[in-house]
Design a protein that fits this description.
Blueprint (H helix, E strand, L loop, with lengths): L14 E7 L6 E5 L2 H12 L6 E8 L15 H6 L3 E4 L5 E4 L2 E4 L3 H15 L15
Antiparallel strand pairs: 1-2, 1-3, 4-5, 5-6
């Protein structure tokens, strides 16, 4: 119950944030209520110090997606529900949102490529389906 003349305070809606690391190795989206919350979550998930991650609010999630289970990494379905066009879903992922392209950091794709190189040397093919490393 609220007092007469006072407004009930609603929680800030969930937003989609673009999180960037200083080295740009792990850049990707995060769902949170606040910029600082998105940056801290991202830093914790990826193993960075809090001061090495910045977050920028891209959009407020649609009303139908405003639920606590939206917290954290966005799914492909959530991104598409926000109007994102998935240009590439394999690592590194590329998403277009409101006319702007967002590209995932490259560290994971480099790790997968090097792992496939090792599997290939052992005669086990390329299980991650990456392209062969170019040797100069």
């Amino acid at each position: 119950m609220t007092k007469a003349g006072s407004e009930e305070r609603l929680p800030r809606p969930f937003g989609l944030y673009w999180c960037s690391t200083d080295d740009h190795d792990e850049d990707w989206f995060m769902v949170a209520r606040f910029r600082h919350q998105a940056a801290r979550l991202f830093a914790g998930y990826e193993g960075y110090d809090n001061d090495m991650v910045t977050a920028r609010r891209v959009l407020t999630l649609p009303t139908a997606l405003q639920r606590p289970v939206s917290f954290g990494w966005p799914t492909r379905e959530l991104l598409e529900a926000c109007g994102a066009l998935i240009r590439r879903w394999e690592t590194p992922r590329v998403v277009e949102l409101a006319g702007r392209l967002y590209s995932e950091g490259m560290l994971e794709s480099l790790i997968l490529e090097r792992t496939d190189d090792q599997f290939e040397r052992l005669g086990r093919g390329r299980p991650n389906k990456t392209t062969r490393t170019k040797v100069s």
